[in-house]
Sequence to fold (232 residues):
Amino acid sequence: MERLPQPASYASAKGNFAHYIFEHLFKLPAPERTIERARKYVEPAIESVLTEKVREEIGLDDEKLKGLLHETEEILVTYFEMEDPREVTHEGVELRMGVTIEGAPLFGILDRLDRDKDGNLIIVDYKTGGLPNRSFDSTTFANAELYAALCKEKLGELPTTMRLLYVAHGEAVERPVAEVNIRAREKAAASAWQKINTYYNDGDFPATPSKNACRFCNFKDLCRSQGVAVPS
Ligand code: SF4
Fold:
């Protein structure tokens, strides 16, 4: 296994930047979660997220940094119009969960796991990119459904709702958790894991192109599906 590192992009740096601020904001006691406090995490985010390596990979100059800080301020203002974090009760932020389901090891980091007034668990995922198309295809909630599977296995409790917060656009997209979909995700993960094991044992990993994955892939020049042999 080559474990090729994924180079940073401006979009991933912006996402990590916003996630850093939200994570630290929600670790504060509820009454202290104000926009003024959120802004105080911008400087530490520069230190923590914009490492030398990231700066180099995204070609961060003064102009780009100014743009990133401007977009971050817009995200914060928009976010505080969407909800009041002082009213949020949560079970944790940046929750790292790993479980084994039907032999498949699954791992995920949940941005936030809320507990609503009726005692239900809500999966909250921040999105700093564009809005999904209106028909919300099956991929829109794919990660959140896997997070629901992790909660069910790890906490013994199935969340009732998945909420995606498009913080750059001020829109929240919500869907109830359907146990049948969670089972389907678990089955799909178990089947993918079985395939990985088969490929590993055979010593041959075929390329598995898909429109979404290939569009953003940084390893096209190594990929067999692009007509280039994968080195053995
Ligand atoms: S270009 Fe190749 S390696 Fe990249 S996602 Fe597509 S199939 Fe996978």
Q: What stands out?
A: The radius of gyration is 19 Å. The beta strands are 90-101, 104-115, 121-127, 161-166, 171-176. The mean pLDDT is 92.
